[in-house]
Amino acid sequence: MGLKPAKKSRRQKLAIRKRFAVHAARNAKRNSPRVGVTPVNPEEERPRPQISSSAHVSSVVLDSVTCPITQALVVRPAVAEDGKIYEYDAIKRWVRDNHRSPVTNSPMGHKLVVSRDARSIVEAIIESGAVDDEAAAAWHRASARQKITEALPGGIAGAAVHLERDLVLGSPTEEGDALRVVLALKDEQKDVLQSAAAAGVGHEAEKVLLGRTTGAMTNFRDDLKALRAIVRVIDDKAELTRLCKRPAPGADHVVKFDDDDKRDSMLAYCGREAIVRRFSKSRRAYHLWMKREGTWYAHYFPFDACILVDEDGAPSDADDIPDPDDSESDDSSDSDRE
Asked: Which residue segments constitute the domains of the chain, with CATH numbers given?
């Protein structure tokens, strides 16, 4: 008669079950493939791929929007024929004298394409904090200058926003402080001109403070020098539309009016300065060149929609101003074209 095994207590049974469960879990973990890892053939050892960190990705993006010539974040970016992004003015000077890429040294033409997307990328990087404060502040100052000179859209109001960011992010600079003082003086000047206008001496105040009056021309002048005279189109879009859709005083024809919602439409000229390219006697109008984002646009405007700024103020050394005979006019049917 064999001996019966001794009965195990409840505590012993629980301990055995626990050890069994631990052992089973270890085997399952050892034999199952790990999540996110490709099984490796033991006979063929391969290096594990390295996953880029977010910091590395930010660095790569930052490099792509840093001008290889200026070594600064692009403010007015342009893509050259080598596919690289440059500061517009810097690469424009380069291609003027060179026919090779400054990065690859491969042959390269002179065509440049302004890239709004690249500027948006820079703005996003700065807002994310991936750029140190001083570099970000320098970018904001440069952006303010470009908007003041209308190389970038946004005008004085946009420049003021950039200068506020510059003050928050960076250390005080003479450049930034000077620009902020200038904008503050402009606001004060506007108040003074409004007060003068209310007192009935608005034209006199404009002449003293601005060196000119802001009223539209009252007579058509055909003695203005082509590519030398500068005028400013009135800033009231509704009034500009009205003036362009009727013959100017003394005119036989109306100008060809384009009010499409495009950056090269006639309404885009409102409040902006432009160079007189030629004039039309039959329309009593000026053919005006305006440069926006590196590209020249041209339209005819009736004389009473123009404010004479300077009779001889266009830069004589600006070699990219189109010659009067270089482009087809939108008023080519005008036999009086000069």
From this structure: 55-181 (3.30.40.10), 215-338 (no CATH)
